[in-house]
Design goal:
By secondary structure, the protein is of the alpha/beta class. It has three domains: 238 residues, Rossmann fold; 38 residues; 75 residues, no CATH class. It is built from 18 helices and seven strands. Strands 5-4-1-2-3-6-7 form a seven-stranded mixed β-sheet, sandwiched between helices. Helix 11 packs across helix 13 and helix 16 crosses helix 18.
């Protein structure tokens, strides 16, 4: 069976996501489309407003055939680890594989070439990247300069989404996963807006209905926003956390744990102030938020590295009823080993915390393996 994968967060699901699902089918000519989706917490350190099972249902209603979960240790991690975790799970799917993602520019071949440049010139690339950061240049600009110095086309890495696309290709090449890379241009226009814009409009009480399918809009509008409660929990976790544990989080190096501990007291535990003062050209807002979220969830780099080396199973969140008998055997992979069990125990704990913070009512049991749509 030809299977096309999409790596996603759907926080929340919007018209652009529906368009990518449609385009992925057109480009791949696949028999089934499978989404690999983050659970309740995201790569930028945010907490999703609605349940992962409900977001998975939205994807199925938009045309996907199944949704499998990207566990929290990978979902709340830097782009490289996010990509490696997602590609690892995709490699477990039985079938002829392709991967489709939205980009601002570039073809699949362009992204593979960019990935090869950063892999083949890893020492030079890393040295140039470190130099830019040490000089006080932002991460994106430093990354672009290092990439150009290695002979790359800077337009390919002109946005965070494109950088993530390069990381997908690097992960596939390193893992030697036979997978076709497909890209589709990210949509813009009157009926399209990115997820962060929709979240902002929602918080401000502005209208965002036209940017989402009606079924997704209704669920998102009805969901309780618990952002402030989540952010306070993140701040409290830094206050209560041990410096040595905070240092174990991806990206928390060069004494950043000391800076966060100091800011907790200076800012009186106010999350927004802590993030603002910790942000710099060297440390982006997304990185600071991701570190604080990972610390709250106890997602440590050494654990995650062991999960990347382990045989992991696939957790199916939702599947289309009409294709389940044919598709589920291709997604059934449940090895028995300690690392896999620990990975999903940590993931279940993250979901339990989300339930505690948001008190959802739709789904009572984390052991529910999937829903049929």
């Amino acid at each position: 069976m030809k299977i096309c994968a999409i790596i996603c967060e759907f926080n929340p699901f919007h018209n652009g996501h529906a368009r990518i699902i449609d385009r992925a089918r057109e480009l791949s000519h696949c028999d089934a489309l499978v989404c690999v989706m983050s659970g309740q917490f995201t790569q930028r350190g945010d907490m999703c407003r609605i349940d992962k099972f409900l977001r998975a249902k939205h994807a199925i209603l938009a045309g996907a055939d199944a949704v499998i979960e990207l566990p929290a240790p990978f979902a709340v991690a830097p782009a490289e680890i996010f990509a490696r975790g997602a590609i690892k799970l995709i490699s477990r799917i039985k079938g002829d594989l392709s991967l489709c993602f939205g980009s601002e520019s570039g073809t699949g071949a362009d992204f593979l070439n960019a990935a090869k440049i950063t892999l083949n010139e890893s020492k030079e690339f890393k040295a140039m990247l470190a130099k830019g950061l040490n000089d006080g240049t932002s991460y994106i600009k430093s990354y672009a300069s290092a990439f150009a110095a290695c002979g790359g086309d800077v337009s390919i890495i002109s946005s965070p989404n494109n950088v993530l696309g390069v990381e997908y290709c690097k992960a596939a090449l390193c893992a030697d996963v036979p997978i076709d890379i497909l890209t589709t241009k990210r949509e813009c226009g009157e009926s399209f807006a990115p997820a962060h814009t929709i979240r902002r409009l929602s918080l401000n009480g502005d209208n965002y209905r036209d940017f989402m399918p009606e079924y997704a809009y209704r669920d998102y509008y009805a969901a309780k926003d618990c952002t402030k409660r989540f952010e306070q929990a993140c701040a409290d976790a830094v206050f209560m956390g041990d410096k040595e544990d905070i240092k174990r989080v991806y990206g928390c190096n060069e004494g950043l744990e000391n800076r966060l501990k100091k800011l907790i007291k200076e800012c009186g535990g106010k999350y927004d102030e802590i993030v603002e003062k910790a942000t710099s050209k060297r440390y982006s807002t997304a990185r600071i938020k991701r570190i604080m979220t990972a610390n709250l969830l106890r997602l440590y780099a050494d654990d995650t590295e062991s999960f990347l080396d382990a045989e992991l199973g696939l957790k199916v969140l939702a599947v289309k009823d009409s294709i389940k008998d044919e598709l589920l055997p291709l997604l059934t992979y449940s090895p028995e080993n300690e690392s896999a069990r620990r990975c999903y125990e940590i993931n279940s704990a993250a979901y339990a915390l989300w339930r505690y913070l948001s008190a959802p009512t739709d789904y009572k049991n984390e052991n529910e393996k999937m829903i049929l749509v």
